[in-house]
Each structure stands twice: as C-alpha cells, then as structure tokens.
Amino acid sequence: MLYLKGFLNNMLILGRKYKFTKLELERLHKKFKSIQVVKYTNKEQSEVLHELQNAVNIDDFDMIVLNTKASVGDDIIKYLTSLRLTKPNAKFRIITIEHFLEEFLFKCYIPNDNKDLHFLEDIRPYSTLEYILKRSVDLVGVLFLLLINVFVKPIISKQQRLQSPGELYFIQDRVGQNAKDFKCYKFRTMHEDSCHDPYTQENDSRIYKYGEFMRKTRIDEIPQYKNILKGEMHLIGPRAEWNILVNQYEQQIPYYNERHLVAPGITGWAQVNYSYGANLEDTKQKLMYDLYYIKHWNIILECKIIWKTILVVVRKKGL
Predict the structure, then answer these.
(1) Rounded mean pLDDT of the chain?
(2) What is the distance between the alpha carbons of residues 249 and 255, in angstroms, rounded to a whole number?
(3) Which of residues 184 and 81 earns the better pLDDT score?
C-alpha cells in the first residue's frame, strides 16, 4: 500500500491502465490520506476479487477508481454494487479513471489506441459566444503585450548584440487551427544556426544567457501579439507546435489532431500545469491538459490560466 500524508479520503485503484506521474501523486497527496492499488493484469477474477475484498475489509475506502483495461468480471461488478448498499458513508464513490482524471487532476484521459471513439463526443470547437469572449480576452491581452513590448524590445535588442548577434526575431512554421501552418514570431533566444533538436533541455548550450532569462520569464513570446491580431492565435490555448514535430506526434499519439480544433495560444492550461517537455510521453501528458481545456472552456478557467501564467513569470519557471 502507498500511504500519503493527506487528510481527506482513502482511495483504492483497481488496475493500472493509467499510471500516475510523480507530479500527480504529489497533487493527490493533498486530497487523499491513503492510496492502494489492486493490480488486475494477468490475474484470475477470483484472485482479484479476493484482494479487493481484503483491502476493503482492512481500510475504510471512500473512493474506488476503475482503472483496468480488462473487462471487469460479473462477480467483481456484483461485489462493487453491493458496497454501495453496505457502506453508510455518503461520500463513498465508484468512479472510472476517465472521470477521475477530469475531476481531480483536470486533464482528459487518452486511450492508447483508436478504438475508444466515444472519447471524441465532447471535444468541440468554441461556440460563437465563447469565441467572442475569447477574442475580447485576446484584445485586452494584446494591448498589455504591446505596452510591455515598448519597454523590453530595446533591452532585448541590446543584449542580443552583446551576447548573440543576429536577427532580433525567430520565425518558425507552426501548426494552428484546422492544422493549417502559420508563421509564429518570437524573440530569438538561441544562437543563430543552432542544431535542430526538437526538444529543449535543461542547461541547453544553444541558448545564450539573456535568452535563457527570456524563456524563464516568457518574454520571448511577446511578439506573438502579431499572430493574435492576425487571428492565427489566441492569448490562451494549446501551445503552437512546430509543424515537423506535429507530423511525428500525429503518427504516435492517438487523438493528437483534436487540439487543432481551436487556435493555439501564447500560454495555456498545459503550459501552467506541465511546463517541461522532453519526450513523447511529456507531449502526451500536455495533450491531456489541452483537451481538458477545450472540453471545459469557460471564462473562469481562462482567468485562472492568466493568473497561473503571471505566477510562472514572477517565479521564472518557464522553459
């Protein structure tokens, strides 16, 4: 059993279809007093049922999360159903991993194959009213970015001349709404003619000193106000990815194209919840947050992302 020093509930997870990351366990640490996992893979139904019964008899669980790829057997279903009648605790719940991730970790579960098509039902573009609200946020954001740009552009230009002479801007083809390419503008943070490694690493030698500062404070993103004015981007949305990387992700990550139902953003739900990306698994994790954002968009979530982004900038935790 894995015990966490929380104070709210006890949770039992049936199966390991989805494996929680270290960061997620730290977040669940604040919600659950204990977490126990009953494995389902390569076991007889009777063995799983026996472990499940023992676990429930020992601990008073408030929640059971169904997290198994295998079909849950009839005997286990009957037992779980009976728990609803025998447990007096009004907080007791049986919940699937899909609903659990959305409710407690604010991300959408992504299956590892393309068989679970009902997953696509609630992922849709913004409604007309939602789009009007988002563009209103965009315009306010652009005014703010323009004001900052007036002050920081001369400083950035001077630091570049001293540390890494070359073009002020870095312009790259990125993928936007409906999978259409567009030219994305950023202040250049790497030395010119750096090798094309798709992932930025810690202490990346391609990044000059002031460029590292710009990345951590995210002021390198300021020129993207031009993309917002053109309607190619929003202030907030899924990250605009390099078109070469997108071609790779589409082949390896199910449902990756769903993030292109909306225009990308300078900042977003994925960026403030999972800021570091160094491999394909990180990209999949970010996609889970992007899909949650699209599915559950509202103005409160929009404001929450703006606040979290401000905290990232102040604490210099950008990448």
Answers:
(1) 86
(2) 10
(3) 184
Euclidean distance between CA atoms 84 and 63, whole angstroms: 11
Give the residue with greater pLDDT, 277 vs 232: 232
Candidates 299, 223, 297, 287; CA nearest to 260 is 287
CATH of the domain at 22: 3.40.50
Q: Predicted confidence band at 87 (pLDDT cuts at 50, 70, 90)?
A: low
Residues 7 and 150 in one domain: no
Residues contacting residue 105 through CB under 8 Å, at least 6 positions apart: 24, 27, 28
Give me the domain span that covers residue 64: 2-105
Q: Using CA of residue 80, residue 4, residue 30, residue 70, what is the dihedral sign?
A: negative
Q: Is 292 exposed, middle or buried (0-12, 13-18, 19+ CB in 10 A)?
A: buried
Q: What is the pLDDT of residue 182?
A: 96
DSSP string for 66-84: E--SSPPPHHHHHHHHHHH
Q: Say if residues 7 and 28 touch (Cβ distance below 8 Å).
A: no
Specify whether the CB–CB gap between 249 and 256 falls below 8 A.
yes
Q: Do 27 and 96 share a structural domain? A: yes
- pTM of the predicted model, to two decimals? 0.88
Give the SS3 label for residue 97. helix
